[in-house]
């Protein structure tokens, strides 16, 4: 019999029968639940493109087995905007050009939201960059990202 998970995803309670107990949270979100805003980059915990919040903490979803998260609350990039209004972090990324190609942006934004929730953002760009160091941007938009995080946490 397939194991069944209870998850709250973007505020909605879901009961999910797992076909494969080895599935990662990333693949569950993208392949089963069509939440493709969460991106797959390295698939080995090195790029941060797959960052989501699990019970309010930043997690690389490519490293998390879905089966280990029974009862957890998951927030993905799709869950940030409320009634069409952008989350302040999303708005700040736009205002400060915190992206170029955009592939890493969902992970960057989720990581920024987590950093702010942890109270670790601060006003110092170097400190913000350190706090966001698990999220790589191949376009090098780091200056705009740090500015956006600083504005959003004010
Ligand atoms: Fe998960 Fe790169 S895809 S850290």
From TrEMBL:
<dbReference type="InterPro" id="IPR052914">
    <property type="entry name" value="Aldehyde_Oxdr_Iron-Sulfur"/>
</dbReference>
<dbReference type="InterPro" id="IPR012675">
    <property type="entry name" value="Beta-grasp_dom_sf"/>
</dbReference>
<dbReference type="InterPro" id="IPR036884">
    <property type="entry name" value="2Fe-2S-bd_dom_sf"/>
</dbReference>
<keyword id="KW-0560">Oxidoreductase</keyword>
<dbReference type="Pfam" id="PF01799">
    <property type="entry name" value="Fer2_2"/>
</dbReference>
<dbReference type="InterPro" id="IPR006058">
    <property type="entry name" value="2Fe2S_fd_BS"/>
</dbReference>
<keyword id="KW-0411">Iron-sulfur</keyword>
<dbReference type="GO" id="GO:0051537">
    <property type="term" value="F:2 iron, 2 sulfur cluster binding"/>
</dbReference>
<feature type="domain" description="2Fe-2S ferredoxin-type">
    <location>
        <begin position="3"/>
        <end position="80"/>
    </location>
</feature>
<keyword id="KW-0408">Iron</keyword>
<dbReference type="GO" id="GO:0016903">
    <property type="term" value="F:oxidoreductase activity, acting on the aldehyde or oxo group of donors"/>
</dbReference>
<dbReference type="InterPro" id="IPR036010">
    <property type="entry name" value="2Fe-2S_ferredoxin-like_sf"/>
</dbReference>
<dbReference type="GO" id="GO:0046872">
    <property type="term" value="F:metal ion binding"/>
</dbReference>
<protein>
    <submittedName>
        <fullName>(2Fe-2S)-binding protein</fullName>
    </submittedName>
</protein>
<dbReference type="Pfam" id="PF00111">
    <property type="entry name" value="Fer2"/>
</dbReference>
<dbReference type="InterPro" id="IPR002888">
    <property type="entry name" value="2Fe-2S-bd"/>
</dbReference>
<dbReference type="InterPro" id="IPR001041">
    <property type="entry name" value="2Fe-2S_ferredoxin-type"/>
</dbReference>
<keyword id="KW-0479">Metal-binding</keyword>
<keyword id="KW-0001">2Fe-2S</keyword>
């Amino acid at each position: 019999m397939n194991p069944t998970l209870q998850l709250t995803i973007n505020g909605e309670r879901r009961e999910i029968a797992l076909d494969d107990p080895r599935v990662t949270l990333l693949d569950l979100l993208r392949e089963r639940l069509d939440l493709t805003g969460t991106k797959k980059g390295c698939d080995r915990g090195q790029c941060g493109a797959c960052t989501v919040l699990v019970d309010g903490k930043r997690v690389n979803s490519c490293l998390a087995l879905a089966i280990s998260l029974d009862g957890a609350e998951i927030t993905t990039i799709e869950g940030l905007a409320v009634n069409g209004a952008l989350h302040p972090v999303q708005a700040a990324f736009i205002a400060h050009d915190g992206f170029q190609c955009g592939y890493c942006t969902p992970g960057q934004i989720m990581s920024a939201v987590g950093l702010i929730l942890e109270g670790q953002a601060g006003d110092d760009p170097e400190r913000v960059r350190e706090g966001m160091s698990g999220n790589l941007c191949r376009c090098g938009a780091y200056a705009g990202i740090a500015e956006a995080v600083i504005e959003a946490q004010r």
